[in-house]
Design brief:
The complex is a heterodimer of chains A (601) and B (290).
Chain A (H helix, E strand, L loop, with lengths): L12 H11 L9 H12 L4 H11 L3 H8 L13 E6 L2 H4 L3 H11 L12 E6 L11 E5 L5 E5 L4 H9 L37 H6 L4 H9 L1 H11 L11 H9 L6 E7 L8 H8 L1 H15 L1 E8 L4 H16 L4 E4 L4 E9 L9 H9 L22 E5 H13 L1 H5 L9 E8 L5 E6 L4 H7 L9 E6 L5 E3 L10 H6 L8 E6 L4 H15 L5 H19 L6 H18 L3 H5 L2 H9 L10
Chain B lengths: L11 E6 L2 E6 L4 H7 L23 E4 L6 E2 L10 E3 L3 H17 L7 H9 L26 E3 L9 H6 L10 E3 L6 E3 L16 H5 L5 E3 H9 L7 E7 L8 E7 L2 E6 L13 H5 L11
Parallel strand pairs in B: 1-5
Antiparallel strand pairs in B: 1-2, 3-4, 3-5, 6-9, 7-8, 10-11, 11-12
Classes of the chains: A alpha/beta (601), B alpha+beta (290).
């Protein structure tokens, strides 16, 4: 290909060094595009024309395509920007804890989002959910330079943001624990959270001292066929939201004659209100590495890609450390555990795009293309990453495999209910007394779970629960006896989704929450298909009109528009984002007294 | 002597479309199957000469047993498939796609087929006219003498990107950039075309269904109010430049060439040309100054 570069744009030495460091990490291949863009941005705070040229030459990708990819991600800047960027979450969970007012105060007293403070060293921007909802309100700092650093401020205050923007970064205080059940008195019967709070997440030895790597040892002894059988017998289904039987997925790839096979761990946890995978990765990273290795061995994959969202700096650094230690000890590499099996993991960071949690978008993102979803069929087990048979599993799904191998599939299936085996992680946030990550067997009711987390803060009355995240549904206080299982929520016309349970009490303006959900989808639509690209915009506009009573159409007409748009998004969008972009809004309009005469807002 | 080559095995499958049982090649798409029995399907981002991207969703149909609608242009038939092309769900989705596009994009120069389809589905974009209403309205990009880009008419069908890329020209001067409603067709950093990789083949203009990409000659005449297709004739000829033999269709108004196209079903061009055939015709009308 005859590459036509941007005339006269040359990378600085610093940019060149940063990019070359990435390009040298493997053979020249387009899947290094996203890491190379990250490297450039981390070095100088944005992706310059010169840096883009340098990447294009290195990877032989046309500049227009590279620009198309870079401009897809919210965390990349394509014009000079302050090296320190504070991403302040103003999404729904943080809104229940004052984030909107904090952002307004920042705008009034510090400057508009994107504007630099005097000296040009720092700026702030509004961010969608950062996945730290149990600590709300929160922020994440991206610091570019020779020693780049990304870190969270959770919880964060207005004064903290102002001081971080004014001075050099401070040492980070240790975050409060995320899983209340792991505190004293520690809950019995924890499975997924078993080691959390007990094990040193940075020590492979400590992980092994707590039973780590016995599951892989056993899986290697059993062999792939038996592992597949155990996973099938466990009746494990995916925890990312779609609840597809894991064993069937694994088997389809394991049996495929097309080679190579790929394993992908979907750690792009971006559903507003979801933080379960983050806690697992931060507190027990070796568990995920071990589980991925078992999955790889069982399905004939020699490479696993671990795609983690760009907003998870601590989890990223813990996993990077865990992968390195596992390699050193022969637990990853050409001869795993000395058993002659090859498996290794490549970690990839996203860069701010909810859509990349959609599995086919995630493949495109890894491959160095825009994170646009692909049409299905073909399904990933037939044609996934690099168009090869691919197992793609969520973090929580994979971590379940350790127990399945350790105690056997049938034993695992005895926990939970017939249609939903095992335990589930629930992300409790919003107006809860003790927000955090909770583990419970499937079948616990919504009411029991809310009580487990201490009920509503300050004993206030509950007005609504958002179940399953922004792509989920609102349920009312009358529906709390719903059993939390895939089949139980389905029967109630709701969804378990990613396990989000966000509480809203009578102090919360639900119209404001709905509008934030609508604007979330508007911002996160990839723009590929018409129903979602324009539908998410029209949905938000109509809600805005209803809320500000600026409608010249009248309520009935606006609701008819919203319903029509909802149906075309659900029926005709390419992927799950568009198909669920109206579900929370629709459920709220159906069940909650919002936007109706005499309603609360 | 030519060695005997076994005939490829061509299998047919039975599908039911709108209650009619029909047999089509197993490689056929639902769109092709519909066409074979005379069912008209609206399309926008689909073109025979390009890889289907199925992004506009105007061709969606209902496949029994599927949770959501399927794009007819790219979904392959399966044995026993039962398809509905005129159900209430299908009609609503098609109408809404037209309305959503019509409410945000200037469709005044869209193809006649497109406008007929909008009427067929009773699309009324003005339903969405209340404030606030985001549109893609923006100034026309005029940065060279050959063609202009008016992205306020862009429906983001990806056709120009495909024609610039592996489906025709392999130049990769443009790509989709940005995200969501802000996504649009762009060169790197929105650099003007003369600084980009563009080779001015004009194949993007050839595939654009909404007049967003247009000959500068046509743009200027429209600005001056002199563009009049009723006064235009179309003459087929062969490009005089090289030995490939591309068919050119000269669109002539008032004895001047105002636009050049090539038929999409032409064996040699598939509708695509190069800069010379597309734009290099000024010498024909190099008349002495009057």
């Amino acid at each position: 290909m005859d590459l036509h570069l941007i005339p006269g744009a040359v990378a600085s030495d610093a940019e060149r060094d940063a990019i070359d460091g990435v390009l040298a990490s493997g053979p020249k291949a387009r899947h290094l595009l996203l890491p190379a863009l990250h490297a450039a941005q981390r070095r100088v705070g944005y992706i310059s024309e010169g840096a883009l040229n340098h990447i294009c030459v290195g990877l032989e990708v046309p500049p227009a395509e590279t620009y198309g990819v870079a401009s897809f991600y919210a965390m990349f800047a394509l014009a000079p920007r302050a090296p320190r960027v504070v991403h302040v979450c103003d999404d729904i969970a943080c809104r229940t804890r004052g984030a909107a007012a904090m952002c307004d105060a920042l705008e009034a007293q510090v400057g508009k989002p994107g504007d630099s403070v005097p000296g040009g060293m720092a700026t702030w921007v509004r961010s969608p959910c950062l996945g730290l909802c149990e600590h709300a309100p929160v922020a994440m700092v991206q610091e570019a330079g020779l020693r780049p650093a990304d870190y969270d401020l959770a919880p964060v205050t207005f004064d903290q943001i102002r001081s971080v923007m004014a001075t050099a970064p401070q040492p980070q205080p240790v975050r409060a624990p995320s899983a209340p059940q792991t505190l004293s008195p520690r809950a019995a019967e924890l499975r997924l959270l078993r080691r959390i709070g007990l094990v040193d997440p940075q020590s492979l030895d400590d992980y092994r001292a707590h039973g780590g790597y016995s599951a892989l040892r056993r899986a290697l002894a059993l062999g792939p066929e038996r592992v597949l059988r155990e996973v099938n017998d466990s009746k494990l289904v995916g925890r990312g939201g779609a609840a597809f039987p894991t064993g069937r997925k694994w088997e389809a790839v394991a049996r495929s004659p097309v080679r190579p096979h790929y394993l992908v761990c979907n750690a792009d946890e971006s559903e507003p209100g979801t933080f379960k995978d983050r806690v697992l990765m931060e507190e027990d990273p070796f568990a995920l590495i071990e589980a991925m290795t078992i999955a790889g061995v069982a399905t004939g994959c020699e490479v696993g890609f671990l795609y983690i969202r760009g907003e998870y700096p601590l989890a990223t650094s813990r996993l990077t450390g865990a992968i390195a230690q596992a390699r050193t000890r022969g637990l990853l590499g050409d001869n795993v555990m000395g058993e002659g099996v090859r498996f290794d993991i490549q970690l990839r960071r996203g860069a701010g795009a909810y859509i990349c949690g959609e599995e086919t978008s995630l493949f495109n993102s890894i491959e160095g293309f825009r994170g646009e979803p692909r049409n299905k069929p073909p399904f990933p087990v037939q044609s996934g990453l690099f168009h090869k048979p691919t197992v793609v599993n969520n973090v929580e799904t994979l971590v379940n495999v350790l127990d399945i191998i350790a105690s056997g599939g049938p034993e695992f299936a005895t926990v939970g209910t017939g249609g939903s085996s095992g335990t589930k992680l629930f992300c409790v946030s919003g107006c809860s007394s003790r927000p955090g990550l909770y583990e419970a067997p499937f079948g616990i009711t919504l009411r029991e779970l809310i009580d487990l987390a201490g009920g509503v803060r300050d004993g206030r009355p509950l007005r609504a629960v958002l179940l399953g995240g922004a792509a989920g549904m609102f349920v009312t206080p009358e529906e709390l006896d719903m059993p939390l299982t895939f089949e139980g929520t389905r029967a109630a016309g709701a969804t378990l989704g990613s396990g989000v349970i966000m509480l809203f009490d009578d102090t919360i303006d639900l119209g404001d929450i709905l509008l934030r959900i609508a604007s979330f989808f508007r911002d996160e639509s990839c723009g590929q298909c018409v129903p979602c690209r324009i539908g998410t915009v029209r949905q938000e506009e109509a809600l805005h009109r209803l809320r500000t009573s600026r409608s010249t159409n009248g309520i009935e007409t606006e609701l008819a528009l919203i319903n029509d748009v909802a149906q075309v998004m659900r029926d005709a969008s390419i992927c799950g984002l568009g198909q669920t972009a109206a579900s929370a809004v629709q459920s709220a309009l159906r069940k909650l007294p919002i936007f109706v005469p005499g309603g609360a807002s | 002597m030519t060695p005997a080559v076994p005939l490829p095995l061509v299998r047919e499958v039975e599908v039911t479309i709108d209650g009619r049982l029909t047999r089509v090649l197993e490689s056929a798409t639902i769109l092709e199957a519909c066409k074979s029995i005379g069912i008209e399907t609206p399309t926008l981002c689909y073109l025979e000469t390009l890889t289907p991207v199925n992004v506009c969703r105007v061709c969606v149909v209902e496949v029994e047993g599927a949770r959501v609608l399927a794009p007819a242009c790219s979904r392959q038939v399966e044995p026993g498939m039962v398809v509905h092309t005129d159900s209430e769900r299908v009609r609503l989705s098609r109408r809404l796609v037209f309305e959503l596009l019509g409410s945000s994009v200037d469709l005044s120069l869209a193809t006649p087929e497109f406008k007929q389809d909008m009427a067929r589905y009773d699309a009324r974009p003005e339903r969405f006219n209340a404030d606030p209403r985001a549109t893609v309205a923006q100034p026309v990009k005029v940065d060279n003498n050959l063609y202009v880009r008016d992205y306020s008419k862009c429906v983001l069908c990806y056709k120009c990107v495909e024609a610039c890329g592996t489906d025709a020209q392999n130049t990769f001067a443009i790509a989709v950039a940005g995200r969501g409603f802000g996504a649009g067709i762009a060169t790197e950093f929105d650099t003007p075309l003369p600084d980009s990789a563009c080779v001015y083949c004009g194949n993007c203009i050839g595939v654009c269904p909404t007049g967003a990409l247009m000959f500068k000659s046509e743009h200027d005449m429209r600005q001056a109010g002199t563009w009049d297709e009723s006064k235009q004739t179309v003459t087929d000829t062969i490009c005089p430049y090289c030995g490939v033999g591309c068919t050119l269709q000269l669109h002539v108004q008032d004895n001047s060439i105002v636009r050049v196209t090539s038929p999409i079903d032409h064996d040699v061009t598939s509708g695509h040309l190069c800069i010379k055939g597309r734009f290099g015709w000024q010498f024909v009308q190099n008349r002495p100054p009057s």
